[in-house]
Specification:
Strand content: 15-25%
Largest sheet: 5 strands, mixed
Distance between the termini: 46 Å
Order of helices and strands: EHHEEEHEH
Number of helices: 4
Number of strands: 5
Structural class: alpha+beta
Strand order of the largest sheet: 1-2-3-4-5
Shape: globular
Radius of gyration: 16 Å
Length: 161
């Protein structure tokens, strides 16, 4: 059990961090596949590595990592994009992925990465941040609400035979 995050460093991702990020991204993808087979398993995402490399090059995206004693223990991927036509905003911030290794959860890593993301969003002049979360992921919903997010829209799905 890790009780101390005094060695936690929150920083912008470097190319050499991608292997650790990809491992965490695959774990997150597989978690969602277990929640609902609608989501692909990580084994079906052969191009994930090339996407991750593109993330680092995209000026409208930022990847942030939490590092503890030299080990990447979490990542936070967010972006800016054009706001939906029905919004007064011109652009919005979006949270794409967040993952923290199990043993580092509830230790402040996600909130520290979010603070770093907020700095970036403010530099990009973003007024609103949106994210999607599976409604069955109650732990994540609780974290997002603690960070000030609220429900404002419900997306629904119907599976056909």
């Amino acid at each position: 059990m890790i009780n101390n995050t005094k060695n936690m460093t929150i920083r912008i991702t470097k190319k050499q961090d991608l292997a650790a990020i990809l491992e965490m991204a695959r774990a997150m993808v597989d978690y969602h596949h277990e929640l609902d087979p609608y989501y692909k398993p990580s084994s079906a995402l052969a191009d994930l590595e090339s996407h991750a490399e593109e993330w680092l090059e995209d000026p409208n995206m930022i990847l942030i990592v939490a590092e503890n004693s030299g080990k990447i223990v979490g990542y936070f991927r967010c972006a800016t994009e054009e706001a939906p036509f029905y919004s007064k905003a011109k652009k919005i911030g979006t949270v794409a992925d967040v993952f923290v290794a199990r043993e580092y959860r509830r230790k402040g890593a996600a909130s520290q990465m979010f603070e770093k993301a907020l700095e970036w969003f403010k530099k990009k002049k973003v007024q609103n941040i949106e994210l999607n979360v599976d409604f069955r992921n109650t732990g994540a919903i609780a974290v997002w609400k603690k960070m000030g997010f609220f429900e404002y829209k419900l997306r629904m799905r119907k599976d056909l035979d």
